[in-house]
Each structure stands twice: as structure tokens, then as C-alpha cells.
Amino acid sequence: MSVLELAPLARDASATDALRATTSVARSVEELGYKRIWVAEHHNMPSIASSSPAVLIAHLAASTSTIRVGSGGVMLPNHAPLVVAEQFGTLEALHPGRIDLGIGRAPGTDQRTALALRRTMAGLSAENFPSELSDLIAYFADSGPITAVPGRGNEPSIWLLGSSGFSAQLAGLLGLPFSFAHHFSSANTVPALSLYRESFRPSRWLSEPYAKIAVNAVCADTDEQARFLAGPASLAFLKLRQGMPQALVTPSEAAAYPYTDQERAFAEERFADQAVGSPSTVHARLTDLLDRTGANELMLTTMVYDVGDRIRSFELIAEKVAEGLHR
Fold it and tell me: On the CB side of 100, how many CA atoms lie within 13 Å of its CA?
């Protein structure tokens, strides 16, 4: 099991607070035996402080010693492939064998912000993604008219990320490991993983498919407490979809929010196929998910208000859930 860390921003906290909390999470999950920790790339979102994966990965890798650290992911339309190759080549050179480069094809933000990042419409279309991905991979190789230093010869572990069939099929055709965003696209998980496996061709990276799924996981002593802790994330997701993104409020404030029936149904659907509850409930949910998807790896994302509750959730899963999971 692994961790997807979003560096959530509480309403009364600073970015410094959020990033310090993320560092604490990284150190804690390393001690707990998690395989890897990835950080996301989000822009123009008041609830998430992770907007620069390469910078944050450098800090987290330097703050830990054994856990793999990576991007979940670098949104390639926002960046020139050469820049990504240089950044992640630097990371791999600094921390050999510990860096993952997870790549996504969506900008991870609104169109205006994406344009501000790229400064041109060139490369922002999904149709450009395969060629830009090819360029990025080539920069890590030993050939080509441009030498990415220190990218060349310092290739991290490359993953494709996706929430639909497009990246699933591309990952399969290229023979890359694939990470699916079950945490916000659960209806597409099984079809996408099936497409990935059907499309898979052995490559220099993999001889057989390797699939990971990201899942919302909030574990507490009781089901009621876990649902209470998950409340701020549900409300933040609702506000994001309504075009009014906000930082995380407290669990009590989230519980007191005057949901309409339609809003409550939307918020509850957010966690309908996720893992929120006591250790026994989370175990049952994750076991069912593994049985249905055949995933090789689970990546847990825990968007809660307090970092202590976040770390406690990872502790409970490591100590009371992980050993009993099976495929």
C-alpha cells in the first residue's frame, strides 16, 4: 500500500502549516512501512497546497530515507517535457532508486489557469499528450539532439495516471505501470483496468501489467467517527463542483452545513465506493475493491482536517487492515 498526499489546507492554517503536516505524514508512513508517497499537482485550489510536485518531492525525499517519493502526478500539459525531464532527472540523481514520475494528461485546473501556466495554447490539447509523453521519455535516454542534464541516464520510475480509458490504453500499449483515480472516478475503474490489461504489451519497464488504484480512505475507531472526519472533504468537493472552491472547514462545521437533499446525495456519493469507517469496515471495503479490480497496489488518500487524524488513519490501516488484505 501507498499514500497519495494532497497537502490539504485548513481554513485557519497557512501553506507553511500544510506543508509541514505533509512532511510529518511522509515520515510517519515511511515508519509504518508504506511503499511510496506521491504528491499531487493542483492549481488555483484553496484547499490544496501541493501545486509544485518537483519542489515538494525534493523536500520529502530529503526528509525521509527509504520510502519512494513521486508525483501523482505531473500534469504534462502544464509543462514543457524538457523541463520535467530535467527536474525529475535531478531528483533521481539526488535520490537514486526512490523517485516515481507519475504523469497525467489533464491540466488539473481550469482553462484560464492552465493557460497562465503554459503561456500558450500549444500543448494544452489532449491530442498532444502522446507526442509530448514520447518526447519526455526520450529525454531520459542516451540519444537525441538535445541533452537533458541531468535527465539523461537518470530515469525515474515512469507511470501513467488516468481517470478514463484513454491513459489506460496508452499505458498498456507502452508497457508502463498504470495508476487509476478511483478516488474520484470510481465508475470507470473496472473498465479502465480491463482496457489497460487488454492493451498491455511487454516493454523494457514491465513484462506484465501493473495496476495501482487511488482510493479515499479514512479510518477511525468507529464508523461514525470516520464519517465525521470525512465531512470536510465531502463539503470541499461539493463546493469545488459548484465553482466555489474553499479550504477545509472543521468536521463540526462540515456536519452543521445546511445541505439540500440534492447536495447531500452528491456528497454521500463521493464516498460511496471508497473506504471510510472502522478498521473492520475499511478492511471489507478494500478487500472488495481488490477482488473487483485485481489491482496490484492500493494508494490511499486521506483528506481530513487535522494532521493527527490523518496519521492515525494510516496507523490503523497499517496495523489492523493491511496484513489481512488479499487479492
Answer: 27
Sign of the CA dihedral running 14, 19, 25, 27:
negative
> In this structure, are residues 249 and 305 in contact, taking their beta carbons and an 8 Å threshold?
yes
| Predicted confidence (pLDDT) at residue 118 exceeds the cutoff of 70 | no
Query: Do 206 and 176 form a contact (C-beta atoms < 8 A)?
Result: yes
Name the nearest CA neighbour of 155 among 102, 105, 100. 100
pLDDT band for position 270 (cuts 50, 70, 90): confident
The residue among 256, 284, 259 whose CA lies nearest residue 270 is: 259
150 upstream amide cis, omega within 30 of 0: yes
Q: Which residue do the cell numbers 490489461 mark? A: 197
- The answer to whether 5 and 25 are in contact (CB under 8 A) is yes
- Radius of gyration of the CA atoms of the chain, in A: 19
C-alpha cell at 16: 507553511
